Amino acid sequence: AGIGVFEQAQGSFEGCEVYGNTLQGIFIKGSGNSSVTNTKVHSNKMSGVAVYEQGRGSFEGCEVYDNKVHGICIDGSGNPSVTNTKVHSNKQAGILVGEQGQGSFKSCEVYENTRHGICINGSGNPSVTNTKVHDNKMSGIGVGEQAQGSFEGCEVYANTLQGIIINGSGNPSVTNTKVHSNKDAGIGVFEQGQGSFEGCEVCENTLKGIFIKGSGNPSVTNTKVHSNKQLGIWVFEQGQGSFDGCEVCENTLHGICIKGSGNSNVTNTKVHGNHMSGLVVGDDGAGTLEGCGIHRNGDHGVHLKNRATLNVTGGHVSDNAACGIVWDDEAGGSLTSTTVHGNREHGLHLRGASCPVVRQAVLYRNGGAPV
Fold this sequence. Notes:
The termini are far apart. The chain is about 0% helix and about 40% strand. The strands form 3 sheets. The protein has a 16-stranded parallel sheet with strand order 1-4-7-10-13-16-19-22-25-28-31-34-37-40-43-46, with no helix packed on it. It is mostly beta strands. The protein is built from no helices and 48 strands. The radius of gyration is 24 Å and the shape is elongated.
């Protein structure tokens, strides 16, 4: 390595340039704890910075780039502090955290790396705040293999795949973060991935805003999902997920689509202004809708088909361009204490051997015409 810090050693490095070394640029392990400021670490034959085996270290105002493996690699309970640092153009991940690695990243920029911008696996658990993650060649942030991680006040955008992808029982916490303009979906959760999202904005992604499949089960709260080029939220192939206090609007296709034995809970959420239907449930999909407002969508407010089951309680379904709620092709479920009004076509429309149970609903000022 260019610099190796071991066995509780410290040392400070300021204004240096570390490059062209056969292994890592800087290697810290065994409770080593160096201070590195305003330093460039580049063009090394392995990772730029590696922190292993309870190594620590602080990095401020640095640039880590063009290394042959990762920009920064943290493993074996390594726990560095990285502030105001650019990590870019590395040949694999920008930042890799694995095997109980930790680390805090504040006000950094992670971009144009060949793989993920930030990759967390093997029970890694870093803290990332006020950081931009963009233009990476795979996903912006990838969390898997029971890893966690917290992300607060970040911006994740313009990555080649998803902005954030969670699988393998990964379970990060993401708050007050904007995920936008990615070339695939904004957020993807699958293979038993979890994750909590609170106060986020997911918008203007090329495909879906959020997709959930393969027993993925995130919790999404007080989040706005809007202006995505396909669906706002897509739940399929036994995906789950809960959505509370969210807003799903102005997406090019449906606001929310649940299919293929997907089963989501949606509460206190506004679904409006989507160019097609507000909520579609089909192909044995299921879910609950409680206290929601489904209004002013470009087709039906809610469309249930192909053996779908949805239980709707409270809320209102209003002013949609076609019907309020359609049950089709053996769809079922229940509608309880919901107000359905002002829809251009029928308030409720049943066909194709559908058989819902409707209790204490209020229906007024709906139209007629074909469906």
